[in-house]
Amino acid sequence: MNHKSRQQQVIKAFEDFLSTPLETLLQRHLNTQTSAALTLFHDVAANVPAYKAFLAEREINPATIQTLEEFQKLPAIAKQNYILRYPLADLCRNGQLQACDMIAASSGSSGKPTFWPRFFTDELQIATRFEQIFHDSFYADTRRTLAVICFTLGTWVGGMFTTNCCRYLASKGYPITVITPGNNKEEILRVVQELGSAFEQVVLLGYPPFLKDVIDTGIARGVEWQQYQIKLVMAGEVFSEEWRSLVAQRVGLQNPCYDFASLYGTADAGVLGNETPLSICIRRFLAENPDAARALFGESRLPTLVQYDPCSRFFEVQDGGLLFSGDNGIPLVRYDILDTGGIISYDAMLQFLAEWGFNPLENLRSDTQQSPRGIHQLPFVYVFGRSNFTVSYFGANIYPENVTVGLEQPGIQEWVTGKFVLQVKEDADKNRFLSVVVELGAGVEGSEDQRVAIASSILSQLLRLNSEFANYVPAEYQTPQVTLAPMGDAEYFPVGVKHRYTRK
């Protein structure tokens, strides 16, 4: 792409974003007859060298893929069989890395970052997800709003992406002012106290356990959160509705459906979906009615539940896992992100809830004095999280492999079998901590000194191997709480049963 056409592309995309009302953007999928995913496939098959090679290796002729049914038989791509197999430039359109203007990083199980290039226009479609939240949930078109970015800054995807999207909303005319303390707790507290009262509301954007830690630290220091009309935008992990209610109470929020929004996001493709007042209202009903939740999701745990725009990100379910297609600096076609979950259409969701005697639309109307925002006929996607045994902690994916290395160090390996159970738990005050139950070797009693040494070894390897852990998790939450269990412990290490290294 030459300089002039790139400039024209930017101008047109930004003009469209600035001039198109949110409602119009969210109704595109109702009016389109052609599949956005099929259109994307043909574009990528023609213009992305890596995907051309991927199809050629499998003897697939793109011209034969003309229907959605044929599209859904295409082989899925993933990090292992696609992203890591081809040079970075070949994953971009026309093999041109320079056609992207920004690169973000995400950390894999080895701790070696994967790089994700993107261009300005990729951020605009993600900015619509933020506009949904700021307009529908926070009424930020009519309220002077301070957006405080509490995600980690630097190459990590969350901080810079979120900052840019919030600034695009300000360009669109929203009275939003952005400040970027990142995950510096002292700076966040200073910003809120010194600037917060100049605005009608303050939005904190960050990982759920980190935001709670900021709030609790503020309370301990006498910060009166109520006076700032706090709102929260979160990403990175599943949390309970009890957690949402507790945080709402601590900052004086009256209406959780409109005061919070969680993003389903990924370094690979930005924001895939977002909580809406409607999805939160539904999830809170399901949290109180576990039988209904089990009937809907097929599990006794409550997943993240968001709505998504199929014109921006097209979801499919295959073998209980989620695949999505979407345009980015690295366009992705039927990408397996290793999340388990499912999709539910808007009509099917309302019909299911009606069978359980619940009407979320009426519920939202009774909660708001005016006609409620945030009701759009968008499909739902629910996400249980990574299927490859990771746990998510302060937004960092923690892998069993990282812990294994900590137990394999000299002086440690003599005491243990190498088996462990990794979990993220909550204490009585709903603060999260990283729990590792370690199986002791035969005849080893287990002392406090050994427990401390094992915790220290695991911590040093997590910091060494997992760059997300090192950058996302505040220092005071990094040391795992290690419990030593005897060999064959019935609860954690039953004999003769295939061992699972993580528990949700």
From TrEMBL:
Keywords: Ligase. The keyword Ligase applies. GO terms for molecular function: ligase activity. Gene3D superfamilies: N-terminal domain of ligase-like (3.40.50.12780). This is Phenylacetate--CoA ligase family protein. It comes from Nostoc edaphicum CCNP1411.
